[in-house]
Automatic annotation (TrEMBL):
Its EC number is 1.1.1.22. It catalyses: UDP-alpha-D-glucose + 2 NAD(+) + H2O = UDP-alpha-D-glucuronate + 2 NADH + 3 H(+). Pfam families: UDPG_MGDP_dh, UDPG_MGDP_dh_C, UDPG_MGDP_dh_N. PANTHER family: UDP-GLUCOSE 6-DEHYDROGENASE TUAD. Pathway: Nucleotide-sugar biosynthesis; UDP-alpha-D-glucuronate biosynthesis; UDP-alpha-D-glucuronate from UDP-alpha-D-glucose: step 1/1. Residues 327-428 form the UDP-glucose/GDP-mannose dehydrogenase C-terminal domain. Belongs to the UDP-glucose/GDP-mannose dehydrogenase family. It comes from the Bacteria. This is UDP-glucose 6-dehydrogenase. It comes from Streptomyces albospinus.
Length: 446
């Protein structure tokens, strides 16, 4: 009989994973502790903007006309325990307030709530990003509290999906990594992923701590690449060199590669910043903090980028923001997402606002979240409206919509034709042709 799957936590990771498992043909039960979220999902609505996810979900959610009915949702752990052979735990692990360490309370609550209902053989699979050593500890907790005892096993199966590409990355991952303690768990996970998902994808089997570390080290490496090129951007600016050309040229070396070498205002979001901070905190606990001191530098290069963009904007408006209008294009931490968590764009907008600038933000999908987080900023309904009367325009999130803007049209409504490209993504020649002074980070002025 086909395995029955449950997914605990229906945020980015969980909602996508649940829909993808249904797409692969499994009967899936998704759980969240927030009843309003469950109600939305039952109606086939996704609580965040993620390309393709709503369509995928609606293809499978029970009760939606024409759906396969394979995907259902609940708030009951009892139901989850009775239903599933394999339970994926997908709850989030945010940064603790005022600390580097990550907050494990959601993971711990999920395990504590699930364990007493594991009355029959089951595999619990952790997908959340956790400090190394967590899986071993959680396995002990399961063993102590699950009525089925040794028939309940734990595996750790980190997830590498990117926001904006969540569906594609889940259905076509570039690798599957599983940390297990026995052959039975490995066999079950091979069975779960024996579908188009795993086709061609390397299946890496290892122990718990290695699986946990694969995720945090991968994110640290990606962050390092971005901060490396941003450090080069600082040097390029001082030396009159062009960081975009430099990135292109070093990227032809396959050992370096072209990806993740776009200089700009740096990384943000719900993963990279908090994962590298949690990684440093954990290294400290393990007595190897020296091994990761370089990550502190990666973090500070990244944070410096935001300040540098504020300085560039201040210079552009003549040395002070008082009485100046600043148009901000972009609020989300990256395009194709409505996520504003630790968004460099909003951080820059907020700093300028605090320094007396009159900021107007426009973002294609992030407006509602931005308004909630930064209610005192000004907002506009379109890029054109945001730019109206602006003394300087800041391009801070590289949405396609902004690349498609007509600089000549914007030139008619702006007070001053000055644009700063914080993502090195606009066509400089096009903007200059329309009469704009275009400046990008780490590149010569003209
Ligand atoms: C990241 C990892 O890529 C993913 O594997 C992991 O599962 C979760 O964390 P995500 O947070 O969705 O995914 O964003 P990502 O595409 O990695 O971008 C992170 C940030 O880096 C964004 O703010 C982006 O604008 C910035 N970035 C990325 C750069 O500044 N330059 C680049 O060259 C690439």
């Amino acid at each position: 009989m086909a395995l029955k799957i449950t997914v605990i936590g229906t945020g980015y990771l969980g909602a996508t994973h649940a829909a993808a498992m249904a797409e692969l043909g499994y009967e899936v039960l998704g759980l969240d502790v927030l009843p309003e979220k469950i109600e939305m999902l039952r109606r086939g609505e996704v609580p965040m903007y993620e390309p393709g996810l709503e369509e995928l979900l609606r293809r499978h959610v029970a009760g939606i006309e024409g759906s396969t009915g394979r995907l259902r949702f609940t708030t009951s752990y009892e139901e989850v325990g009775a239903f599933g052979d394999v339970h994926f735990v997908c709850v989030n692990t945010p940064q603790k307030h005022g600390e580097y360490a990550c907050d494990m309370s959601y993971v711990e609550s999920a395990f504590d709530a699930l364990a007493p209902h594991l009355t029959r053989p089951a595999l619990v699979v952790g997908k959340s990003t956790v400090p190394v050593g967590s899986a071993a500890r959680l396995a002990e907790r399961l063993a102590a509290h699950a009525p089925a005892g040794a028939d309940v096993e734990l595996a750790w199966n980190p997830e590498f999906l990117r926001e904006g590409f969540a569906v594609q990355d889940t259905l076509h991952p570039d690798r599957i990594v599983v940390g297990v303690t026995g052959e039975r768990a490995e066999a079950l996970l091979r069975e779960v992923y024996t579908t188009p998902v795993a086709e061609g994808a390397p299946f890496v089997v290892t122990d718990y701590p290695t699986a946990e570390l694969v995720k945090t080290s991968a994110n640290s490496f990606l962050a390092t690449k971005i901060s490396f090129i941003n450090a080069m951007a600082e040097v390029c600016e001082a030396a009159g060199a062009d960081v975009a050309k430099l990135a292109e040229a070093i990227g032809y070396d396959e050992r370096i590669g072209k990806k993740f070498l776009r200089a700009g205002i740096g990384f943000g979001g719900g993963c990279l910043p908090k994962d590298l901070r949690a990684f440093m905190a954990r290294a400290g606990e393990l007595g190897v903090d020296q091994a990761l001191t370089f990550l502190r530098e990666i973090d500070s290069i990244n944070m410096r980028r935001r300040g540098h963009m504020v300085e560039m904007a201040r210079d552009a408006v003549g040395g002070g923001f008082l009485g100046k209008r600043v148009a901000v294009l972009g609020a989300t931490f990256k395009p194709d997402s409505d996520d504003v968590r630790d968004s460099p764009a909003l951080n820059v907008a907020g700093q300028i606002h605090l320094q007396g600038g009159q900021v107007t933000v426009y973002d294609p999908k992030g407006m509602a979240n931005a308004r909630r987080l930064f209610p005192t900023l000004g907002y506009a309904d379109s890029a054109l409206d945001a730019v109206h009367g602006a003394d300087v325009v800041l391009h801070l999130t590289e949405w396609r919509e902004f690349r498609d803007l007509d600089p000549a049209k914007l030139a008619e409504v702006a007070s001053e034709r000055r644009i700063l490209d914080g993502r090195n993504a606009l066509d400089a020649a096009l903007w200059r042709k329309a009469g704009w002074t275009y400046r990008a980070m780490g590149r010569p002025s003209a």
